[in-house]
Amino acid sequence: MDQHDWLAERFETHRTRLRAVAYRMLGSATEADDAVQEAWLRLSRADAGEIENLGGWLTTVVARVCLNLLQSRKSRREEPLEAHLPEETATGQDGPDPEQQALLADSVGLALLVVLDTLAPAERLAFVLHDMFDVPFEEIAPIVGRSPAAARQLASRARRRVRGAEAAPDADLARQRALVDAFLAAARGGDFQALLAMLDPDVVLRSDQAAVQVGASGELHGAAAVADTFAGRARAARPALIDGAAGLVWAPGGVPRVVFGFTITDGRIVAIDVVADPERLSRLQVALLDG
User: Fold this and answer.
1) CA–CA distance, 19 with 28 (Å, rounded to integer)
2) What is the C-alpha separation between 203 and 183, in angstroms, rounded?
3) Where does a domain end: 140, 164, 188?
4) Which of 151, 157, 180, 248 has a CA-to-CA distance to 97 between 20 and 30 Å?
5) Residue ranges making up the domain that contains 266
6) pLDDT one-digit tens code per residue, 181-192
7) Domain assignment present for 79
């Protein structure tokens, strides 16, 4: 076996973990694959004999690539809400391959992916590497250009926001549907006061990166701000079951393009998560309802 084949074989033993790190960092399987491929290219150009801990070296490389991608997202030009969404989601009829399904089987949920999208790049990196993959802060610090203590603070801030997304929702589907249906009617009718009454005072509206790119706010807090966003709008939205929970969807031609997931606690809406990323949409079970 020559040097290249030997190195490729060693790299393959780390691929699944690297893809998992990149997916949680980026929220996109395609971008995750690109980040892992970039790590391989850098390894193939490096002096592998000088690398003492290959797994750690590769994780660091993938993390740096992901951090650069996250930072570049922040500088992309945002298009107006009326911007044209892709006509095809290009996810394929056969779905992800078995390896990808295994990778994503224990992946983060819809709300958490959206929360991660709203974190600053350095916060997201620190949280993902430490809390999800047990990377020490001493190794995270040089990646984000901070001290270990500062890296710990980044993860702590991210952790608080993530925990805020994990409120136990009401499980009664009939009550969920009644509230979401009432919310949709109030939004279409521009009834600001009715919207306020259904929203928790500390409600948060979160949008994934794909939704932000077509003009959605990355994150809004408070009932007044969220009610103002929806009042007089949502005319094209339809009620739907999203992974078994009541929600709304924009589905021209019956194809989901944007999903609105609701978290309802104690009879009020505490969070609305807006998802437009085609890869994420393809993994949601969306059932359109009459309305």
Assistant:
1) 10
2) 14
3) 164
4) 248
5) 173-288
6) 999 999 999 999
7) no
- Is the CB of residue 269 less than 8 Å from the CB of residue 199? yes
> What amino acid occupies position 149?
A
- Residue 147 CB neighbour total at 10 angstroms: 13
CATH number reported for the structural domain that contains residue 220 in this entry: 3.10.450.50
Model pTM?
0.59
Q: Which two tokens stand for residue 122?
A: 């350095």
Residue 78, in any domain of the structure: no
CB burial class (10 A; 0-12, 13-18, 19+) of residue 104? Answer: middle
Asked if 97 contacts 125 with a C-beta cutoff of 8 angstroms, the reply is no
What are 41's two structure tokens? 């290219």
Nearest Cα to Cα of residue 238 among 173, 178, 180, 291: 291
Amino acid at site 187: A
CA pair distance 282, 265, nearest whole angstrom: 27
For 262-287, what is each residue's pLDDT tens digit? 988 888 998 898 989 888 888 788 88
CATH number of 108's domain: 1.20.140.160
**Cα(39)–Cα(64) distance, integer angstroms:** 10
- The phi and psi torsions of 279 (rounded to 5 degrees) equal -65, -40
> Within the chain, how many helices (H) and strands (E) appear?
15, 7
C-alpha 193/C-alpha 195 separation (Å) is 5
How many Å from the N-terminal Cα to the C-terminal Cα in the chain?
A: 63
